[in-house]
Amino acid sequence: MRAGSTMAGPEIERMIQLLSRLPGLGYRSARKAALALLKRREELLVPLAQALNDAASKLVECSVCGTIDTVDPCSICQDPRRDRSMIVVVEDVADLWALERAGVTNAVYHVLGGHISPLDGIGPERLNIGRLIERASHPEVKEVLLALNATVEGQSTAHYLTEQLEGTSVSVSRLAQGVPVGGELDYLDEGTLAAAIKARQRV
User: Fold this and answer.
1) How far apart are CA 177 and CA 197, in angstroms?
2) I want to staple 192 with a disulfide (CB 3.0 to 4.6 A). Which of 42, 122, 178, 197 is the partner?
């Protein structure tokens, strides 16, 4: 049977098609995932469907840092144990999650929502930069760490942010050794991330 042909009812086909849109899943992988869910209907499929529905109905963007959560401000921004003297700036929520997974910083974050890319029509005005400047101007903030991807776009964004933050009294730093050129934070191991933050360099 050729890939993509109808093998089940429209509901199951739609499930497979939607799963195939996820990163790293082609049609065949989505079909396997769907079959695994269907075989474990009560144990996995029903709870997953409920969890997805709950998340979709409660999902919000944090009005402080720009991450996604089910509460606003987000869980991290509300955490009194966080070191608010440092703001770690990341491009995307996935980068924030990578740093949290590695447990390499106890600072608060700021999610830009992407990077500057003129070729793609993405300018500074489309990113969460204005709010960052506001936060960096607060007296309790001493350092802004630019934890951006080591890509051309990431470095261009870092340069732009450094210029914008010159009007504040904060120290601006960036990730140091261990982050390969072209590397994205979400794909780096915990040791590499820890070394890059520990050896951060002032801009």
Assistant:
1) 9
2) 178
Same-domain pairing of 109 and 177: yes
Q: Which residues contact 70 (CB under 8 A, 6 or more apart)?
A: 55, 58, 59, 60
**Average pLDDT along the chain:** 88
**CA 135 – CA 77 distance, rounded (Å):** 12
Angle 10-19/27-39 helices, nearest 10 degrees? 120
Between the CA of residue 144 and those of 9, 140, 177, what are the distances in Å?
53, 12, 18
- Asked whether residue 87 falls in the same domain as residue 164, the answer is yes
Tell me, what DSSP letter sits at residue 80?
T
Strand boundaries in the chain, DSSP class E: 60-61, 68-69, 83-90, 107-111, 143-146, 171-174, 201-202
Give pLDDT < 50 ranges for the chain. Answer: 1-4, 178, 181-182
Task: Judge residue 114's burial from the number of C-beta atoms within 10 Å of its C-beta, 0-12 exposed, 13-18 middle, 19 or more buried.
Answer: middle
Note the pLDDT of residue 191: 60
Secondary structure (3-state) at 90: strand
pLDDT at position 149, please?
A: 86
Residues 29 and 103 placed together within one structural domain of the fold:
no
